[in-house]
């Protein structure tokens, strides 16, 4: 597989880019934010995603989707990142779909059509503490009659406040810190005993804190095997991580572009600031970092799509590398914009905020660098 | 007992008697009393403390008594600072008049100006703001455009300032204006005028932190009495440079020596052990730099006090201190994880943490960007050619 | 079976029959056979392998047969590379003639020059060196001073080169000389001449690694036949630029995609677990970058192959790859601790590790400094003004 | 104590600087190296140190020294670093003296006069593996008659091949990894069963690998208390670390100075390279780092001199910070010297080599950053 987009993929990019730039540019985010929109994204836009076939990008053809892969999902996510378009695409169409793809026909039939149609919003509930440590999953799922009762807390559940469906990692056996004994559940909106608090984050997106107070689910809510949820959880998270990396690439690319443009317009000391060599070298270094991150992300997506055994390593590399590159992009962006970059009027600050949330989502650069070390045996 | 020792004893006793316990708790920058026509006290204790200090001239302890100051010697002023720090006393008055305009007036003002303006500052009667930056001239003050035309009996000021801190709350402004368009630095003057003058308007700037501490400030045919100029006409650059140097010194001497330098220590207290090994390592490397910088701050102050500091050293302190602080807050956000992303919740105290993080990004821009400071070091300390 | 598949099968069989096992072990850069008049084989296997490959023109598999090459299509050449890699076959011949001069001659040489020089290169008969840098012109080739005066029937060359790799071992040199002092880049020509010519002398440069792979090379009234010029007079800059671009591509495509990208994995194999937590974290962060860069190398080669790479992208690869390698060797030294400091002991194989570390410092200088590469990116990719 | 040199200290600097610049400049190191000198330093020079009163800088007046402190020792070491002067000053006059100062009168009388006179060279034998981990001390010292028998290996013993006296950390109780059970011994040159191999290092200095094959010492060879050697070992090491930091400051300062000079002389593209803004900013950043390292080192020395409880923390900060700053200085130095910096003819490479050895000596930056974390409770 060559490391550039195929013709079909380039076409998808040519479609997704203008679509998001027109329908959900940064102005769209500002409108949602300034009107204090309680959903955090536009349901109309989500419907449009469906009409364009984007919601089902990872859904197999037999389940009504387009049966494409992570490269294609990444193309959409990069444009989402570039435009800061608020959307449940990453959690619903990428992470949740990846989990549901591994479920039995019954569950696939129950949820996938809704996602493909743009009716269903799905959320991922994994984190329980302030840092991402899935192996520490402690939320208990205890057998109860034909099903389970879930007790515990989750946080940082993007779109959880409006999600129709929440994929929940719970512990059916073993103790926090063990891979064995985790089970994935699909929990419907409004389940009794489930309280959800939507929390506005720095980037104006909304994530939920969830309290499960003996929430009853039946056996059919289990995704995959009881106690054997670690593998599907990892698959779901890796899909989310590669997706977050792609979105960060868009954030980084847009931040760099707007900064380089600014360098070509803004004068200081009688010269365009882009003429100053120190800034030129820093911009060139940033370009280099983003290019490398782009390659790492594409490689990770390709390995996921080919079910390669090394996909997990490359996903960790992509998340860590792109996180650092995008962090550099927004930091250099703010600094090179000078005082103007500190104002809400300029967009660069919005990119910095979004980057911080994406950096944290599904494990930050440090978490993934540590994974790279562990996967390499040290 | 030496004179100093007896001064220390008296001061300690007086502070213990006069500083209300509530004024011995740490306060945020914005919790402070800023004085001025619109000033109001957040609490009776704040008022009591301010008035007690102001009565002794101890809002400006080392200014001369004839200008409303405390008339303390440098050694006594240091003892007062030490004793206040010992008790944890808050500053009784936050004021750009004290920090910035005052020192400039003391150096460049006429006797009349000193007698007029300084006591108002000391007593917190007038709140000042600073009008330096302009939309087209951030780091590059020489390019400023705001015009002051000599109209015989007054200056006619037209133009626009930006980044005027709290201009919407200030009573008067000290302001750089162009009095000679044919020169660069040479054509600038340093004017003082009332923000209530006809033609002055302000517009707060919303920042990425969600706060609006700065304004855009507009001057539309503002008439300023001729005598409200500090220093000679077209010599405002000299005043401004002095003030910028003073500001840099102040920032570098105040901002970074205080507080807990070890971020890891602070975080471990808040969250317990730092479990992520890579984050822990990055915090440890930060703490090495932070503890080293604390030593540097101490050294710099000692050198400053004894006239041994290189005149450009404040640039180095400003550069290193602000870059370090930005890094610290990035790590603080990383350690806080998704908790630290909350923007409006009560749990997060309306997002104190992320807002402080975003606020820190201005550290390396305001008061001369990091790039400007590096250029100053290259030129004035390393003597590199063409810098 | 497709044509390619049968070529692959034949090639595999031939390699297995003809590549001696000893030539399937990794070798250091300096263990290789370099050919030339003074060339000698380190072992009978090395000779056998070289001769077998040279007989097929496979020292330069994709050069045309009429110039001594293998005449393989790009696809076949790739298959040969893959099959050699599969068996771990060493390169049969290291040669600046193959890597650098050959491509330039193929593009700019006359038919006569190609027929004369290329087969000599392919057969390893003549060892070439490169004369670009001068003491006053490292990154700045436009400033070069070595003169070639037109003496009617010959060029008279005077001047000095530096960083001539293995000039003391080379037979001929390809050399940039100034033929018109009134121009800058425009006044440079690309000459070829025999290092045995009267007036040529060389002096090895001792490096910080303790090795001397480079020389200073002096030209004192060296007479060069008129026809030994590549491209037109005063057009040498075009040839040189092409060659530099080619070199950068070669460095970026060869040097960094190979080997174990995870330093931590390599070190853990050698030393066991990395116990120092800060060092481990820094190695992990390096490995993120190294694994990402490996993906980048792969992407770059794919883009190059399909004509999709930005013309300035090799600068980015060169910059990022060399900086990464320097960092890797710093960490390698840190992990090696005091063992890695030994310089002459048998235990350390005469200090292979510290010498490789010191050698790496040249990575970001030779072939265009990192600063030059960043400038190229700024100018040609980011289109920044005045870059 | 103000954070600048007192008048007396400034006088010491004014003496030590010219002395070393004249008697042991870089040329002196080159001579020793090129003649493959087997000692690795000049014994004459060491005698001159003594004549100038430098060998006894840390030796109390009652033991015949000048009774000064670590600030003063650091002044000498910075000049040593600046001139790359090979000398056993750090191991003998700083580290060993610090250990011996805590010994009983008998041992002080046995060794200190020789060090003060410049007759005795002392070495420090702590490291047993390639990285500095003193708590892992495993070399065994077993009771035997009136004394002990030492068995095990040591490495990276600077000047150990010619040392008259070696301070050895050995384990009399407990296991590697424990602070309790370590004992310090003073072992004389030529002890039976002691084999010493001098190894030339990258910076042309010579360090020893030592094999103790049941080396017998009597009870009088113990420094301090049996099993209680951890505290004096730490004091000795901290003295060495602060000293190494001071020497690195000299290395860094000289590397920066010669690089800044080069920037003012070397032309490229028709301009002095020092005019290029990217290099100016990097040089200014380097200046800033070195200044901060200088402050940290001075603070550590002052805290050592006042026996402050926080001295260990500040020593770790100083060693780590100065190590990083000096590393940056030599790396930027080489890069900014371009090709010339790669030649043996230029001095900058010698500074890089020395810096690498000093970085490793008594624990590298990573080791000390980790200590800073531990001492701060995380």
TrEMBL record, chains A, D:
A Pfam family annotated for this UniProt entry: Acyl-CoA_dh_N
Q: According to its UniProt record, which cofactors does this protein need? A: FAD
Residues annotated as domain Acyl-CoA oxidase/dehydrogenase middle: 135-199
What residues does the Acyl-CoA dehydrogenase/oxidase N-terminal domain cover?
6-119
- Name the UniProt key words of this record, in alphabetical order: FAD, Flavoprotein, Oxidoreductase
GO-annotated molecular function: acyl-CoA dehydrogenase activity; flavin adenine dinucleotide binding
The residue ranges of the Acyl-CoA dehydrogenase/oxidase C-terminal domain are 228-374
Please give the family membership noted in the entry.
Belongs to the acyl-CoA dehydrogenase family.
Protein name, entry field? Acyl-CoA dehydrogenase
* Organism in which the protein naturally occurs: Edaphosphingomonas laterariae
**Organismal lineage:** Bacteria, Pseudomonadati, Pseudomonadota, Alphaproteobacteria, Sphingomonadales
TrEMBL record, chains B, C:
Pfam families the record matches: Acyl-CoA_dh_1, Acyl-CoA_dh_M, Acyl-CoA_dh_N
> Which part of the chain is the Acyl-CoA dehydrogenase/oxidase N-terminal domain?
3-125
SUPFAM superfamilies linked: Acyl-CoA dehydrogenase C-terminal domain-like, Acyl-CoA dehydrogenase NM domain-like
Residues forming the Acyl-CoA oxidase/dehydrogenase middle domain are: 129-222
Spell out the coiled coil positions from the record: none
The UniProt family comment states: Belongs to the acyl-CoA dehydrogenase family.
The name this protein goes by in its record? Acyl-CoA dehydrogenase
Q: Which organism is it from?
A: Edaphosphingomonas laterariae
High-level lineage: Bacteria, Pseudomonadati, Pseudomonadota, Alphaproteobacteria, Sphingomonadales
């Amino acid at each position: 597989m060559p490391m550039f987009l195929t013709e079909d993929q380039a076409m998808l990019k040519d479609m997704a880019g203008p679509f998001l730039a027109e329908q959900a540019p940064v102005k769209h985010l500002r409108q949602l934010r300034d009107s204090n929109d309680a959903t955090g994204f536009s349901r109309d836009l989500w419907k449009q995603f469906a009409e364009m076939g984007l919601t089902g990008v990872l859904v197999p053809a037999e389940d009504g989707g387009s049966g494409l892969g992570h490269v294609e999902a990444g193309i959409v996510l990069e444009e989402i990142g570039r435009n800061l378009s608020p959307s449940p695409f990453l959690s619903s169409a990428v992470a949740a779909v990846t989990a549901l793809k591994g479920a039995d026909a019954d569950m696939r039939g129950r949820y996938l059509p809704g996602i493909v149609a743009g009716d269903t919003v799905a959320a991922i509930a994994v984190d329980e503490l302030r840092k991402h440590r899935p192996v520490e999953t402690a939320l208990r799922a205890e057998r109860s009659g034909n099903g389970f009762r879930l007790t515990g807390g989750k946080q940082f559940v993007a779109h959880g406040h409006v999600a129709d469906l929440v994929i929940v990692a719970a512990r059916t056996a073993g103790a926090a810190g063990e891979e064995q004994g985790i089970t994935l559940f699909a929990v419907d909106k409004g389940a009794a005993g489930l309280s959800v608090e939507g929390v506005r984050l720095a980037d104006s997106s909304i994530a939920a804190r969830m309290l499960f107070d003996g929430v009853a689910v039946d056996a059919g809510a289990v995704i995959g095997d009881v106690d054997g949820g670690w593998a599907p959880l990892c698959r779901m998270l890796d899909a989310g991580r590669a997706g977050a990396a792609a979105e960060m690439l868009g954030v980084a690319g847009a931040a760099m572009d707007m900064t380089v443009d600014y360098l070509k317009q803004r004068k200081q000391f009688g010269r365009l600031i882009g003429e100053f060599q120190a800034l030129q070298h820093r911009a060139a270094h940033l370009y280099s970092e983003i290019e490398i991150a782009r390659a790492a992300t594409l490689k990770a997506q390709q390995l996921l799509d080919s079910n390669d055994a090394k996909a997990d390593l490359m996903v960790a590399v992509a998340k860590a590398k792109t996180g650092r590159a995008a962090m550099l992009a927004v930091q250099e962006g703010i600094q090179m914009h000078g005082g103007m970059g500190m104002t809400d009027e300029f967009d660069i600050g919005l990119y910095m905020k979004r980057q911080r949330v994406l950096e944290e989502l599904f494990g930050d650069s440090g978490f993934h660098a540590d994974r790279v070390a562990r996967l390499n045996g040290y | 007992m030496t004179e100093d020792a007896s001064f220390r004893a008296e001061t300690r006793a007086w502070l213990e008697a006069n500083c209300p316990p509530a004024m011995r708790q740490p306060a945020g920058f914005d919790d402070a009393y800023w004085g001025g026509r619109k000033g109001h006290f957040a609490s009776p204790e704040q008022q009591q403390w301010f008035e007690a200090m102001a009565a002794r001239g101890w809002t400006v302890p080392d200014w001369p008594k004839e200008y409303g100051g405390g008339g303390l010697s440098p050694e006594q002023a240091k003892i007062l600072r030490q004793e206040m720090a010992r008790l944890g006393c808050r500053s009784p008055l936050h004021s750009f008049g004290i920090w910035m305009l005052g020192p400039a007036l003391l150096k460049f003002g006429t006797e009349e100006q000193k007698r007029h303006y300084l006591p108002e500052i000391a007593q917190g009667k007038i709140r000042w703001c600073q009008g330096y930056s302009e939309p087209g001239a951030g780091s590059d003050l020489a390019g400023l455009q705001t015009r002051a035309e000599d109209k015989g009996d007054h200056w006619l000021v037209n133009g626009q300032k930006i980044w005027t801190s709290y201009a919407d709350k200030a009573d008067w402004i000290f302001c750089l204006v162009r009095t000679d368009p044919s020169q660069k630095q040479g054509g600038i003057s340093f004017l003082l005028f009332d923000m209530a003058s006809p033609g002055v308007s302000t517009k707060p700037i919303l920042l990425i932190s969600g706060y609006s501490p700065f304004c855009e400030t507009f001057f539309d045919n503002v008439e300023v009495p001729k005598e409200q100029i500090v220093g000679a006409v077209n010599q405002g650059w000299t005043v401004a440079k002095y003030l910028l140097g003073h500001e840099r010194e102040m920032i570098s001497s105040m901002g970074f020596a205080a507080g807990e330098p070890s971020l890891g220590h602070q975080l471990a207290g808040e969250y317990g052990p730092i479990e992520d090994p890579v984050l822990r390592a990055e915090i440890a490397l930060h703490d090495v730099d932070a503890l080293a910088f604390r030593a540097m701050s101490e050294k710099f102050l000692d050198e400053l006090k004894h006239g041994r500091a290189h005149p450009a050293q404040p640039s180095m302190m400003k550069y290193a201190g602000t870059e370090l602080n930005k890094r610290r807050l990035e790590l603080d956000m990383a350690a806080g994880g998704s908790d630290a992303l909350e923007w409006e919740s009560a749990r997060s105290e309306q997002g104190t943490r992320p807002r402080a993080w975003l606020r820190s990004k201005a550290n390396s821009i305001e008061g001369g960007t990091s790039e400007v400071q590096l250029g100053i070091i290259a030129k004035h300390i390393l003597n590199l050619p063409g810098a």
